[in-house]
Amino acid sequence: MGHGSDDEDLVVYGTPIEREEDTSARKRRAIAEAGQLRALPAWKQEVRDEQGRRRFHGAFTGGFSAGFYNTVGSKEGWTPQTFTSSRKNRAEVKKQSISSFLDEEDIKGMGGSALETSQQYDTFGFTAAEHARKQASKEQKERPSAIPGPIPDELLVPATNSIGVTLLMKMGWRQGRSIRDSHADSLYESRRNARRAFLAFSGTRDDEDQDQSSDKPISDQAVVGSLEEMRVPGSTPVYVLHPKQDLHGLGYDPFKHAPEFRDRKTLQKSRGRDHKTNEVSTRGDFLKSNSGQYAPGFGIGALEDLDVEDEDIYASGFAYEQTEVDIEASQITSDHNYKLDGRKRGFNLSFKIASNSEYKLERYLPPEIPDDFDARHKFPTPIQSAINFSDSAPPEVPPPEDNSLALLIDGCAAMVARCGKHIEDLYKEKSKTNQQFLFLTGGDGCKYYVRKLWENQQKYVGQQRPDSAKSNISSDKLTAENRGKILGERPLDRSTKLQSPSLSAKEAVQLQSNLVDTFVKPLSLDGLQESEKPFANDPAKQVRFEQFLRDKYKGGLRAANIAPAGAMSEADRARERLDFEAAAEAIEKGKGENAIDPLSVFSLPGMTEQRFVAATQQESSVLPQDEKPIYPRREQFEWRPSPILCKRFDIIDPFMGKPMPVQRPRSKIENLIFMTESNKGSLVEMESSSRHTQHASMEGITDAESQGTTNDTVIELSSMPKPVDLYKAIFSDDSDDDTDEILNNQPVDPVKTSEGANMALNRLVAEDFLESLGKELGLEVPPERPNILSRSETLSGAGASVSSQNERIATDVMKVKENQSSISMVKVGNANEDALLASTEKLGLKYEKQENRTENRSPPMHKQSRNDSSRYDSSSERHKSRKRRSHDHIWNGTPESDSSSEHHRSSRRKHHSRHRKGRRSPDTESASDTRHERKRKEKRHRRTYTPDTDSSEYEYKERYKSSSKRSSDKDRSREHSRHHKHRREDRADY
Amino acid sequence: MSSSATVAQQLPRTEARALSGHEGAVLAVRFNRDGNYCLSCGKDRTLRLWNPHTGAHVKTYKSHAREVRDVHSSSDNSKLVSCGADRQIFYWDVASGRVIRKFRGHNSEVNSVKFNEYNAVVVSAGYDRTVRAFDCRSQSSDPIQTIDTFQDSVMSVNLTKTEIIAGSVDGTVRTFDIRMGRETVDNLGHPVNCISLSNDSNCLLANCLDSTVRLLDKSSGEQLQEYKGHACKSFKMDCCLTNDDAFVVGGSEDGYVFFWELVDAPVVARFRAHSSVVTSISYHPTKACMLTSSVDGSIRVWT
């Protein structure tokens, strides 16, 4: 039987070596001690369990562990059965088996097998059924299956038969046979006995035996079956059907469009099965068929598709070599009907697949073709010949006397004329035996026949002619030759026409040169006089020169690079080309004396030709000159580097101060993004240049808003036409303020202070409103002076400075002009949104400082607005824009503004609390101030302002309260001095 | 001429050693700033740091998901930047071998990457027709500048102190002058594979796919010379100038390395360096030493 399957039946000798880490330490110790123990006297030996614990203890030495583990193996030891009332659960039967009285060790001692009835005691065949079921499930596990779980079919197959069937089978009946078909002949009986004896003798069955048994397989089957204790019902051979494992639908043919792979696939399948390398080969095959060639190295991630880019373009990869293994034909055939191994199922089948089957496909050799066989069918006489009648009409002959003969000749001639010459041949054949047809071979009436035939042919052709003549004419019109003739082309050489389609390279060149000659007559270079061959001493060069001339003056299809390029370098070729040009010019000049210019050299006969030549000549003269100057070609465009890039390259932004090209905003509010100047370090240098632009832009604004400023007292006060700067003077710091602050550091009337703070609050509320209004109108906002920021440290002293600033108003107003001149620029346009987002956190801090500063500024505002409270209403927009200018922020109008405003708020709170703390302990505060300053220095150029009207209101109120309450002279003075110090530092930095 | 001939004698033509370790094609090999170490990257998705003078393999950097196409080390040797077909730009810490940051933004394979002078910006060129600049100093992984004026894949990028120079398959070499705010487009008419700068930064060497290396004057844009003889038709191959700017070095698809004299453009030397395409060439910044890499997976040191 199949020797291959025997490989799986393993025999294991000895006990497997246990891995050391599997055994517990105690166990190991027990094993180690076992040898020593044995050497001890019996009374000193200890009984230990498998875990190495002492099994028996003395009455008092066992201690806790005695009952804990050793006796019954449970923590609790014996637990008495709890009483359960049988009244409630009467039906419950207490099942007790031996196992319930045994512990694990006892069971193990029994060899692991529970008590059960022997398989031989099988009254109703249940055991056999169970056995068969187990067998089936075991087989199912071994075999791959698409359906998980047991195969229902095999479990449903009745594993046992009724006793009647069993008896019948023992008597020799087999399923699928009628009962009377039992073999009872004595000869067979004797043979059976003999075989049984033989079997008993040999024990195993060998091939010879199987060959013998194949004579009468069915009866033998019965015999063998009767020998066995257990039977499996269906003794018809059970074929294992290979389950469907692919994921295609039924009837799907993967090789539908590629049948050539089918053979390959089956070959591989069978090979893999035969050589037990199924998995490997298919996997390799899968890789191969799907992926083509890939780069060597590691695998692509599971989620990544293989792309074009993954192909190994260098093609130096280690291509997997497919090893072809020869397969014996018999193995393949046996593979197709793989039979379930009988031995596995517990009984022996004596079948074997015949190694040589009787059924053979007969194949015949193809018939031999005689050497003189011609594959074409030949008509004895072509039909055409009948139509190709002779033009010369045979002389008219009177019909023969015999009327019947005349009729016969007429009919025959008509027939021949219509059907062709072969009919005549047929008749000629007949005429040999029949006297009537003698006229065909020159007998009586021959001439009449000839005449008649001609007449009929004339008639027949006359009918056909109108059509054929017409088609002939039309086709005549369309031939290339005719067209060529019309156009004056020179017909191609006949030789090329006759060539086979597979032209050799040389012929291709010839053809090409022929094509070159097609359109224009070649310049007869042979006709050139010896004087016109300037490179006569170098024949190769002369050839090239002639080629050059031909190229130069020749139109049509030009043979590009006919001359082998390899020999000469590009420089040489260029030089030679110059030589040629010069020589050609010289020749032309020489011909010019004879009034021959390149055009006339060709002596064009017709206008049509001239047309071609003119075009091509232009082309040839223009093209080479055109190509040269094109490359390299330089163009320059404006390119705007991002400010941060400039900073990182340590370069001053060339576009600093210039507005970004504004894209069309989707809505005014959404896309209005103001950008700050990006580079602080370069600001000083840029300031002077930017001043002009700043002025210009502000002028525009003020012009537009001039109507609103007429009654502005503030403007009058400062004698400035630009209220923006006044606003700045009020709400932004300048360096000179510091000294004033220190000087004017006097006790402040608390009422006045609170009043001022209230006004500051009002102003801020109004400001925010105005600002949002202004944004909607899309006004440009002037930026704040950068060094203004340095005032932010004065937060804790806000309340204090409020009072002092009241007295500073006059000074502030006077400084309007200075402020204006030092206002930095603003950039309007698309800010880098990413940068904005990234910096919002820091910006929040900035913003807070900004607001602190504005708080400081509030008293003057208050004063002025008292002077002219209507100013807010009249010039609201202007205020708005001024405010924004003073803040010098990027306003991020995109949806992120919400989140960023959140940032602002939260960070502001944090900041605020820090400052409060700082007020209590001035030392810590100063530390935090310097920290802020450092931060500010870093982030100076990236500030965002997000309008959050409602939040600021609340914040300010709060802050005001705290600051006004706690402010004291002492604190204030300290704050001012410190602040001043910082300011100085700042300025040094700039 | 005689002086150049003697100099030609000193060209690195003898193989000092081969650096082996890459499994698969090596796509780029680069000396570091001072020429003591070199970096290589390839189709096996790794970067490798070598000491080419001893042949020691110092470190392997793994994180790329696909082939690594270019690598550059910062001038202080503390950071690396690499790019590859996985569309990522990795910013590495040399010593620890960890990725500090990944720069996102390219929509397709990234062909070339460079640090700027101050190691503050990484500029990359990608198949997505863009050049992108990333800020190493911020936490953001998004580009601070995107240049998308190219018509086709950008193959190579180079930086000077004030300029970004990039060569593209659309046949142009574009110079972005940050100081001037100008983009200068030099159309060469043939796909540009690789660009490199002369050591004085006045000339530009462009390796074109018509098997020609072109030398351009950077300020005027005119073509100074053409170098031919090698084969470069379908692969991205490097070219460079020698450390004294006297010769042009270029690889060929047949594994040869060519040396051209800078001024007159004759081939002064050629030898077979590899069995297959020479993908990358790097010349030592001060000495007569050269590195070549090939798709056969080898890196060779020539002295």
From TrEMBL, chain A:
An example GO biological process term is: mRNA processing
As one GO molecular function, the record gives: RNA binding
Question: Where along the chain is composition biased (Polar residues)?
Answer: 460-477, 789-806
Q: Which PROSITE patterns match?
A: SURP
Places the protein is found: Nucleus
Q: Which SUPFAM superfamilies match?
A: Surp module (SWAP domain)
All residue ranges annotated as the SURP motif domain in the record: 408-450
Skewed-composition ranges (Basic residues):
905-919, 933-944, 975-984
Is DNA repair among the key words of this record?
A: no
Domain of life (superkingdom): Eukaryota
Q: Where is the composition biased (Basic and acidic residues)?
A: 130-144, 478-496, 865-878, 920-932, 954-974
Disordered: where is this region?
130-153, 265-288, 460-501, 781-806, 849-990
User: What keywords tag this UniProt record?
Assistant: Growth regulation, mRNA processing, Nucleus, RNA-binding, RNA-mediated gene silencing
Q: Which SMART domains match?
A: SWAP (SM00648)
Coiled coil regions in record: none
Q: Name one Pfam family in it.
A: DUF1604
Cited function: Functions as a component of microRNA (miRNA) and small interfering RNA (siRNA) biogenesis. May assist Dicer-like (DCL) proteins to efficiently process and/or recruit the precursors of miRNAs and siRNAs.
Q: Would you tell me the protein name for this molecule?
A: G patch domain-containing protein TGH homolog
UniProt source species: Paspalum notatum var. saurae
From TrEMBL, chain B:
Q: Name one GO cellular component term.
A: catalytic step 2 spliceosome
A biological-process GO annotation: mRNA splicing, via spliceosome
UniProt keyword Repeat, yes or no: yes
Q: Where in the cell is it found?
A: Cytoplasm
The entry's keywords:
Cytoplasm, Repeat, WD repeat
* Subcellular location, principal: cytoplasm
Q: Where are this protein's WD repeats?
A: 19-60, 61-102, 103-135, 271-303
SUPFAM superfamilies cross-referenced by the UniProt entry? WD40 repeat-like (SSF50978)
Record-stated family: Belongs to the WD repeat MORG1 family.
Q: What is this protein called?
A: WD repeat domain-containing protein 83
Q: What organism is recorded for this protein? A: Paspalum notatum var. saurae
Taxonomy, top ranks, is: Eukaryota, Viridiplantae, Streptophyta, Embryophyta, Tracheophyta
